[in-house]
Amino acid sequence: MAKEMRIEGRELLRKSSVYLILILLLLTFSILSPRFLTASNLINVLLQTSIVAMLAIGQTVVMLTAGIDLSVGMVGILCGAIAAGLATGYGFGLNLGTVPAFLLTLILGSVIGGVSGLLIVFGNLPPFVATLAMMAVARGLTLVFTQGKPIAGLPEDFVFVGSGSVLGIPFPVILLFVAVVLAYLLLARTAFGLHIYAIGGNKEMARLAGVNVRRVELGAYIISGLTAAFAGLILTGRLASAQPNVGAELNLESIAACVLGGTSLFGGTGNVLKTIVGALIMGTLANGMNLLGIPSYPQLVIKGLVFIAAVTLDILSTRKRA
Amino acid sequence: MAEEKKITTDEILLEMKGISKSFPGVQALKNVDFVLRRGEIHGLVGENGAGKTTLMRILTGVLPKDSGTIILKGKPVHIENPRHAQLLGISVIHQELSVLPNLTVGQNIMLGREPRSFLPFLVDWKKLYRASLEHLQRLNVDIDPRTPISELSVAQRQMVEIARALSFKADIIVMDEPTSALTEKEIESLFSLMRSLREQGISIIFISHKLEEIFSIVDRVTVLRDGALVGSMPISEVKTEEVVKMMVGRELGEMFPKDSVPQKEVVLSVRNLKRGKELRGVSFDLRRGEILGLAGLVGSGRTFVARAIFGADPLEEGEILIEGKKVHIGSPQEAISLGIGFLPEDRKAQGLFLGLPLSHNIGITGLKRLSLFGVVIFRKLKELALNFVNKLRIRTPNISQLVRNLSGGTQQKVILARWLSLKPRILILDEPTRGIDVGAKAEIHAIMSELAKEGVAILMISSELPEVLGVSDRILVMHEGRIVGEFTREEATQDRIMLCATGGANNG
Amino acid sequence: MKKFLILALSLVLIGGLLASCAPSQPSPSPTTTSPSPTPTAKKITLGLVLSTLNNPFFVTLRDGAQAEANKLGVTLIVMDSQNDSAKEASNIEDLISRKVDAILVNPTDADAVVPSIKKANDAKIPVFTIDRGANGGVIVSHIASDNVAGGKMAGEYLAKALNGKGKVVELEGIAGTSAARDRGQGFNEVMKNYPDIQIVARQTADFDRAKGLSVFENILTAQPEINGVFAHNDEMVLGAIQAAEAAGRTGIIFVGFDAIDDAIKAVKDGKLAATVQQQPALMGQLGVQTAVDYLNGKTVEKYIPVPLKLITKENAP
Hints:
- The complex is a heterotrimer.
- By secondary structure, chain B is of the alpha/beta class.
- Chain B folds into four domains: about 170 residues, P-loop containing nucleotide triphosphate hydrolases (Rossmann fold, 3-Layer(aba) Sandwich), CATH 3.40.50; about 70 residues, no CATH class; about 160 residues, P-loop containing nucleotide triphosphate hydrolases (Rossmann fold, 3-Layer(aba) Sandwich); about 70 residues, no CATH class.
- Chain B has 19 helices and 22 strands.
- In chain B, the strands form five sheets. Chain B has a six-stranded mixed sheet with strand order 6-7-8-3-9-10, with helices on both faces.
- In chain B, helix 5 packs across helix 6 and helix 9 packs across helix 19.
- Chain C is built from ten helices and twelve strands.
- In chain C, helix 2 packs parallel to helix 10 and helix 7 crosses helix 8.
- The longest helix of chain C is centred in the first third of the chain and has 20 residues.
- Chains in contact: A-B, A-C.
């Protein structure tokens, strides 16, 4: 009887450890700071998390196939810069307006993801190598295109994507919500999603079962490129300018969000909702510590410790199930 | 029922004719014929390396055949790949289970053929689970298709695999050692499932090392030896001993020179080693200058004995004595410091550093003795390597050759040299001549014999019975984690060892 | 069970860290006996967002601001944007959430900071910029070094050292930057007063040491006689000194700007005559002072120049 309860407890813990950590963080900060638990601050947290969370959606899809995409941050920055160029007439010398600029940029992001995917699927490059190279290429292209300088003077509607809000909810948060719903449905309801999990479980077996492994893997990287482009547009809109030198940590933060959310680095397990919660844990932590006025140096230490604690917990709660 | 069976078993479902297959240096299959009738359970037996697995891999499209024809339901077919085999109704239940643990039962059964809903990219989950439930019910298996595989036992996972095979409308199911990971009770239910499949007109090719299982379930048995067909007959027409004779029946050559070495004092004693299902109480003594052969089928626990002595796996129970003193061996380092050397089974994965030169591979475990204040003295390393290259007649252009570029037999000598450089008292060799050519084999045997003469105690694990018989002073036979037989060199015969190893006798 | 324990332990640990790192919450004591010359009814909280704390300049700026805040009895929250505009936006949003009384920002980029400043404007929180300006939003006051005065200071020093006559070279910074413009303007205004000083060359070297070296090499070839050099920053002047040394030209008086470590060392070694030092501590101090003045209802100037300091061998730190 007691044993059964213990097993159920473990089961519950295993399934909800990431939610538990978020709730504990929310509680801790609510107690420590009176300003924390206000609608405007919570919306702030969502807004601040939206960019990393958007990247992490694509990253989750890729990681589920036992891959990794190290290029997401830089691809996002590149897409933001290209979109800013297309919307202001910088660089290309033609001003397309915001909407066509966005569409072209989203296509560009998908194509870059697709190129990584092709290198991995047909070139047999390890994902780590292919996307690391793509990261360098994207960063280089950004610097070439912008000459290392910010592109400002964006049209109002462009800025709205990152800074505007509808009914008090920031537009990036709305975008993120839509993306999460779509990604969730994609992974949970479609054959493509099921095949993503199957490939992550065991690529060879998925192949033998008749899954078109190459096509599905390619699709995963295209999705990652697409979400990276979205994140880049949000970031650019949020700063009302394309900044070539931001985003150094976005790659790692997107991976960290996935890992915090329990996505296995070896593929096959994880889901988008938990990834978003993982991103929220990091966002909440940063926001809460700012509100408490903790200096920035110890903030890094605490971030690292929370990360270790969360991942350790996840490993411990899943280990004995083999 | 019996009458029904009689009618169905006359129809020939599959005929493989004159199948040959060779790998570099090995003729794996020589002109093999195989006939499978509808609704029969057909046992396929033979020693390790007899060609059973190769034959089945050709049937299931994993390997292409060199020559021969496959006739399925009266029509010649060319099986291109595993997927094609499945579509033709040939499915395989692997020795290592192949279901995806991160998916549910239903998802596994229908993977790759998910029913779609009104939109072509959406999966109709209701339909998927209903269909998979039907397949499970056909097997009388009570598993909820929504259960994640990770929550199932090994036996249940196997049922899911069989359900998956049936969902392809398979009429031939190949089961490669399906019982190796099952408990007695689970085996019983697997057998009753197999019988019910037979009644549904499905043919099963059953590969097993355990002859008692063969005799309790199959209708016919086909025996392969050294890649050739030895015989195929209804099980009712043969006895266990005859099958064993057919499996091993080759003459012993003179390729195993063995000078008898006088038996001396006991160097190593193990008492009642226990570890899960792998070791269920193993005890024996190893004497100075002795070559002790450890025979048994793959999976009987031989390697675990070696790993336990070497400190690679923790023991649950039991003790190890070296020269009469009780020792605790918690790690390979401790084993090495006690003078134990271990040549593992999988050279490439466990023993060799393929990207390093030969000299480094030899010197790596004894670096301390080759270095001064932590700095390796390369002159010493070179001397050591050259010494062994001469002593063991290692064929290499030079000692800085990368090990990756050496032949299998030479690689084996390199590992042997590594251990010999430590001057071990006890040497454990796991499959020391697997995959190497006949000439190199004889050389390795000669080296072993030489070492024994110098007083080294050798424990040799081998799946090749002629080797065990030719080289060993004494032979132990393992079966299911226990030592079930002990023979002196004079007593031992292939038949007796095989009978013990397949669980067909209690002692020799 | 063990997992629960580990979870609990790690969270306790984190909680503890959070608590210990949090500044000791000022008890809302009404008996404020601070020596503040400006009596405050309610304790003022200021937010200071710095572009980076990986640069000693900004660390010193922070220290100056903190000292002033302590003196005036106000709370100062310092945030580090790590040169990342996105982080800066989050930092300012968090300060708005905290409802600080005023925000002092040292922007990472003049454009990227604009949306955040507008948010603060919407929340009716006054914003002050420090060192670097912003291209939009409502700014109460901009607190920055007086580069024009710095240029004058350098010019006066050079003129005196040359006894009011000689041939002088000016190495300019990146064209169009405010620093280059203002420093050049101040310098040239002074030079006008010395008719015997002739500016024989005026070229840009983009604030870069390597360019300073190659540009000055060319000038050395073209000009047989050079008595003084003013460069808009130390990097360029150090490059020029290297070029002069390599060419074996002596007797040139070099004056730089910024007082970077290399330059101070060169001053001590006698290679560089002088360099103009910004005063980040004073900048921080003036920033806090201006914000508090404004919150106490005083009118403040749109631009608060921060004086500079000339470093020579006599006063080199």
